[in-house]
Amino acid sequence: MARPSLEAADIFRGHGAAWREANRGHVSLGQLKVMSAIENCRTAALGGHVAACENSACGHTAISYNSCMNRHCPKCQGAAAREWLAAREAELLPVQYFHQVFTLPAPIADIAYQNKAAIYDMLFKASAGTMLKIAADPKHLGAKIGFIAVLHTWGSAMTHHPHVHMIVPGGGLSPDDTSWTGCRRGFLLPVLVLSKLFRRLMLEKLAAAHKAGKLRFFGEQAHLAGADAFAAFLAPLKKTKWFVYSKRPFSGPETVLAYLSRYTHRVAISNRRLIAADKTGVTFKYKDYRIEGPGRYKTMTLEMAEFIRRFLIHVLPKGFHRIRHYGLLASGARADNLATIRTLLAMAAPRTNAKDAGKADAPAPGIAVRLCPCCGGRMLIIETFEGSCRPRRTAPKPAGIDTS
Fold first, then answer.
1. CA-CA to 188 of 20 to 30 Å: which in 27, 100, 296, 369?
2. Which domain holds residue 189?
């Protein structure tokens, strides 16, 4: 796949220093680390390796620099997604899969920006609790379910829009684990019921967190630190409709994997959406979800400072897990639950061990990493070097060959 002509790294390298200076004292350490990682990604600053063609008559060598592996870097997420998906493939079941979306109302999204770790965690727990409780209700599915939940904090224009995507198998285990209960064709759980419970659970968690002093408010929101003011803030939200969306079921396990590959390791904007960056700002492609059809695909230009600001508001708190497994797929009991389900569905055991799948060892000297662009022979790693060091064995690369 060809490298995009413009990358977020180019924007940060060209304008990041000026932006940091202009916003000195207003940028978090986490945001500074993300900027530094993206700026240094696949440059000499991170070190790399030298690969040489195994064909001595060819003699082609190439330098490849290391990736930053930061989870917010648009360039690094492809490899991370492939490794993660390799483990998920062995866990797929021959059943319908559903896509649920739980979104925070705008007023709560506003206070979430100042309380990311606390409110994003509440969003996960309230949405997951909603799914598990309604699914277990005999009036609905009456079964124990499991699912994968992924947090996204952005809209297509990189605005702050926290929501959780869930990939849910269409059924679950009976309360005594002796049978599989499948859902109706094309229908999992009633959206209106999910919405009402999600609203109640989220508001209860917000009130409890405020009472326990776990929320912080600054600037225009400073008045919400008072108990009465916060209660008044929550009151209208008890009567509004909360957005829970159920998309069309996936057509099969392969479609589920394709979807997961796009969503699990996505960042606020991919390099392939970038069009241009100049003195007027950054132009990129986005979707206007209020419009149906081809007309929803539009372009937007933001001033350079605003583009960088929007990118960085989606930096997650250190150690925060944005992909989580719940119910039958929770880490501790996932293997046993999947084994039980496979037996009940008369499935063959997976060919690969999901526990070990997807692990990629770092390349070592002498291991083939790709084919030579000159003769088609194997390229073997012959040297590794540390950051800011020069490799001992190099040769000019042929014109037009990208060694990044």
1. 296
2. 79-268+314-344
Q: Supply φ then ψ for residue 325, to 5 degrees.
A: -115, 140
Closest CA to 345 of 184, 140, 173: 173
Residue by residue, DSSP assigns 183-213 as PBTTB-S-HHHHHHHHHHHHHHHHHHHHHTT
Closest residue by Cα to residue 310 from 149, 97, 157, 141: 157
d(CA 177, CA 344): 10
Indicate the length of the chain as a whole number. Answer: 404
Decide if 289 is inside a domain.
no
**Residues 151 and 326 sit within 8 Å (Cβ to Cβ):** no
Give the span between the Cα atoms of 123 and 113, in whole angstroms: 13
Residue-wise DSSP of 349-372: PPSS-TTTTT--PPP-TT-EEEE-
**Euclidean distance between CA atoms 281 and 375, whole angstroms:** 42
Please give the tally of structural domains in the chain: 1
Rounded Cα gap, residues 26 and 69, in angstroms = 25
Interval 351-386: pLDDT, tens: 654 444 444 444 544 455 689 999 989 999 989 988
Bridge-based pairing of strands 323-327 and 146-154 is: antiparallel
Which amino acid is located at 346 in the chain? A
Helix (H, G, I), strand (E, B) or coil at 121: helix
Residue 268, burial from CB neighbour count under 10 angstroms (0-12, 13-18, 19+): buried
- Domain membership of residue 302 (yes or no) is no
Q: Is 167 helix (H, G, I), strand (E, B) or coil?
A: strand
Strands ordered across the beta sheet of 297-302: 274-278, 281-287, 297-302
Position 42 in a domain: no
Concatenating the DSSP letter of every residue in 19-52 gives HHHHTTTSS-HHHHHHHHHHHHTTSGGG-EEEEE
Q: Letter for the amino acid at 114?
A: Q
Q: Residue type at 381? A: I
Q: What is the pLDDT of residues 64-91, one digit of tens each?
A: 899 999 999 998 877 777 777 877 888 8
Q: What is the mean pLDDT of each run of 10 residues along the chain (404 residues)?
A: 81 95 94 96 91 90 90 83 79 91 96 95 98 97 96 94 94 96 94 97 98 95 96 96 88 76 84 92 92 88 97 95 95 92 88 46 53 91 86 55 42
Residue with tokens 């490794």: 83
| Structure confidence by residue, pLDDT tens digits, 35-53 | 999 999 999 999 999 999 9
In a domain, 142, yes or no: yes
